[in-house]
Amino acid sequence: MNILVINSGSSSIKYQLIKMPEETVAASGLVERIGLEGALIHYNAGETKLSKEVEIPDHETGLKRITAFLMDSDVGVIEDENHIQIVGHRVVHGGKSLTKTVEVTAEVKEEIRNVFPLAPLHNPHNLRGIEVAEKVFANAKQVVVFDTAFFHTMPQKAYQYAIPKKFMEENAVRSYGFHGTSHKYVSEKAIAYLNEKGLPSEKIITVHLGNGCSISAIKDGIAIDHSLGMGPANGLIMGTRAGDIDQSVIFYLIDKLGYTPQQVNDILLKESGMLGLTGYSDMRDIEEKSAEGNETCRLALYMNGYRIKKYIGSYIAALNGVDAVVFTAGIGENSSVIRKIALEDMEYLGLHLDHRKNDVRGKTIRPINSPEAEKQILIVPTNEELEIAKQSYNLIK
């Protein structure tokens, strides 16, 4: 069965054509810098590896260019759209009612639309991807996997806010959590790895660091707490998002400095985080500038790592200990600098980083803790697309 997985981000589309249940990838790639100058589409299929700079003003154009590659007479892997049986979509926010993987219906799309305000950078693009895929792959089953679904196991003490409870009961104002597809995938991989090694695996902290960042506390495979909340904006410092911030700052910007609520929202979501601190949103640029002596970038790196450290400590308390801390996603898997800062002076908790192992890059699950360490520190490459394919296949089969 061919499953095309579409992972639409705020300015990108990751895609994989996966054969299930074999879990083999026939084609994969990325459309990046959507809506920006220098947009790129990458396409990989067997020995074919192509990258092309093209104009991609929106997600619809991006998806159509992906489809053209998949069906290309020279480099394509399918003859026509009917060779796609399932299209699996990542949707960031499922709200209160969409708590599991579902087949797309008009009602599902309407609910995704209803929670646009909770994930304004993602849900509109996710829904657009679904609508375009319905046209292009009219005979395929359309399936949605929600990032929030993994966190519906959180206890009420973790997801309820300390505001009048009527807002939760009447308006669904609560913490939902995000990046659940990634956290689910890497936590299961980490637990399997630890079990194979005969190591404890009950208490896991997963750290997802990309342009968006989050951290989860997982006990016996079940999420019990998470850094992101009602929307994907709080918690860790991100590429363009501020993460945790005193709400007084928001009212000060509005009441004293004259910004509108929409302007403040845009500042916190699109102009803050590492971009606001340094002028750069790409961690590779920031690390390079820091290494060249840029103190602003150096401070931003330490602020970023310090925020991660605080969450690791709080989740160790919530779990009553930890068996493994797991780093994943683009920055989590590749930035030895951020991992080093985040784990600095954590030896008293049994977290001993092996700096030599930390500096070695790889694409497989690997420990980066010292051999004598009481606790495990793992890098587990995430594969949200495969997780979406698995859930989509299990639903439809």
TrEMBL record:
Cofactor annotation remark: Mg(2+). Can also accept Mn(2+).
Known catalytic reactions: acetate + ATP = acetyl phosphate + ADP
Superkingdom, taxonomy of origin: Bacteria
A molecular function GO annotation: kinase activity
Active site: D147 (proton donor/acceptor)
Coiled coil stretches, renumbered: none
Annotated ATP binding sites: K14, H208, L209, G210, N211, G212, D282, M283, R284, G330, I331, G332, E333, N334
Name of one Pfam family that matches: Acetate_kinase
Main location: cytoplasm
Entry keywords, A to Z: ATP-binding, Cytoplasm, Kinase, Magnesium, Metal-binding, Nucleotide-binding, Transferase
Top EC class, one word: transferase
Positions with a binding annotation for Mg(2+): N7, E384
Binding site for substrate: R90
Pathway this chain belongs to: Metabolic intermediate biosynthesis; acetyl-CoA biosynthesis; acetyl-CoA from acetate: step 1/2
EC number(s) on file: 2.7.2.1
Family: Belongs to the acetokinase family.
Protein's recorded name: Acetate kinase
Gene that encodes it: ackA
